[in-house]
């Protein structure tokens, strides 16, 4: 009998109607134990009393009990696998997990690439067209007034004002944005000043993109940018270049990020990197100084890859025109509010692969990892350690 614990507090993120779920239960005596979390002490007692064989990672597990790492020394000897129904596994030292405890760590492999890359395209488009600010204006500042929203075009960096929103609990959020131009009898020619607050509004078509992190997600992002916007794709991959016959499109491999020529002609930098010492703060004052003025940045990898203070300074100076973020530093405590309060930042709440189709697929793949390990005596379909 195999025991799989699925920790939850208020929500369960799996489809237990899938045929494989029922087959593992009924044919192979796999017990899926939906465990309602209370305290850390109770969790430790439960996994040891039940001699749990597998931990199915959930969002609630991180939110309410801190994820698996704090319980490293209390893992039962029966624990053989930790299965993750998404891609990122940097919350635990997988190599050490395997070497010291002989525990397999599995994720969903390349199967979330399409969903994350979809969202990346939205962020790219918003960075170039400044759509998130236009939407905010239309909803909250110049509500329902199309002409008034257009009056923000042509504003400069000196025209910044603050719009305040107060929630029912009395907390006030301050949103900084460029105010409208004043209408006069003398016409204003906005063609040479087509921007919001000095930040240019242009098309992403035929621009140069640099993708940092060129695994399955980065490669899919490149494919979609090429198809949608005819971008010239540059990429950096530590393990070397990827053949065109594998990619299916032309792309330029960058050998060294220390070379200024890797950065100087790039219109948008896209990060799809994991969190590790090599990628931490890879976007910083030094690397930004090698970029052209008005570069744009999108991050769908890990928040640790950007020095947020340096990014904010670059947004203020105009070195960075705009950015689109789905990940941040300190997500488990409090995201930097200075990023959220800007009109030139499109900010999403880490939802790269959060949609119905991928949740079904992630459940299926996680079940296949469990089947391979505990029924077929394998090492998991997508083992990362």
UniProtKB/TrEMBL annotation:
Q: Would the keyword Endoplasmic reticulum be found if you checked this record's keyword annotation?
A: no
Query: What GO CC terms are in its UniProt record?
Result: cytosol
> Any idea where the D-isomer specific 2-hydroxyacid dehydrogenase NAD-binding domain is?
200-352
Database matches in InterPro entries: D-isomer_2-hydroxyacid_DH, D-isomer_DH_NAD-bd, NAD(P)-bd_dom_sf
Q: Which GO terms describe its molecular function?
A: glyoxylate reductase (NADPH) activity; hydroxypyruvate reductase [NAD(P)H] activity; NAD binding
Alphabetically ordered keywords of this record: Oxidoreductase
Enumerate the Gene3D superfamilies for this protein.
Answer: NAD(P)-binding Rossmann-like Domain (3.40.50.720)
Q: Please give the Pfam families that the UniProt record associates with this protein.
A: 2-Hacid_dh_C
Q: What is this protein's record name?
A: D-isomer specific 2-hydroxyacid dehydrogenase NAD-binding domain-containing protein
Q: Which organism is it from?
A: Maudiozyma exigua
């Amino acid at each position: 009998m195999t025991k799989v614990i699925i920790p939850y507090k208020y929500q369960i993120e799996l489809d237990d109607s899938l045929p494989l779920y029922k087959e593992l239960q009924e044919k192979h005596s796999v017990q899926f134990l939906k465990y309602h979390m209370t305290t850390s002490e109770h969790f430790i007692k439960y996994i040891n009393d039940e001699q749990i064989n597998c931990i199915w990672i959930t969002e609630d597990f991180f939110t309410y009990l801190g994820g698996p790492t704090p319980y490293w020394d209390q893992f039962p000897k029966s624990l053989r696998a930790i299965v993750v129904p998404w891609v990122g596994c940097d919350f635990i030292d997988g190599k050490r997990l395997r070497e010291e405890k002989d525990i397999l760590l599995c994720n969903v492999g390349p199967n979330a690439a399409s969903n994350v890359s979809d969202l990346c395209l939205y962020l790219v488009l918003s960075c170039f067209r400044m759509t998130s600010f236009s939407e905010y204006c239309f909803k909250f500042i110049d509500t329902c007034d199309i002409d008034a929203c257009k009056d923000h075009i042509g504003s400069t960096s000196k025209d910044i004002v603050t719009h305040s929103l107060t929630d029912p609990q009395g907390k006030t959020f301050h949103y900084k944005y460029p105010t409208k131009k004043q209408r006069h009898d003398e016409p204003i020619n906005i063609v040479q000043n087509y921007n919001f607050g000095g930040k240019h509004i242009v098309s992403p078509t035929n621009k140069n993109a640099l993708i940092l992190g060129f695994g399955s997600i980065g490669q899919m992002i490149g494919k979609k940018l090429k198809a949608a916007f005819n971008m010239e794709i540059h990429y950096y991959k530590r393990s070397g270049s990827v053949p065109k016959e594998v990619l299916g499109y032309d792309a330029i491999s960058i050998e060294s990020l220390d070379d200024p020529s890797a950065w100087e002609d790039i219109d948008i930098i896209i990060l799809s990197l994991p969190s590790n010492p090599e990628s931490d703060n890879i976007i910083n004052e030094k690397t930004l100084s090698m970029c052209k003025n008005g570069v744009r940045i999108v991050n769908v990898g890990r928040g640790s890859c950007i020095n947020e203070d340096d990014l904010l300074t670059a947004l203020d100076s105009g070195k960075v025109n705009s950015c689109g973020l789905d990940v941040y530093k300190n997500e488990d405590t409090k995201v930097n509010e200075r990023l959220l309060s800007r009109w030139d930042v499109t900010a999403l709440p880490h939802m790269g692969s959060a949609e119905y189709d991928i949740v079904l697929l992630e459940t299926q793949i996680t079940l296949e990892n469990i089947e391979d390990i505990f029924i077929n005596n394998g090492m998991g379909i997508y083992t990362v350690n």
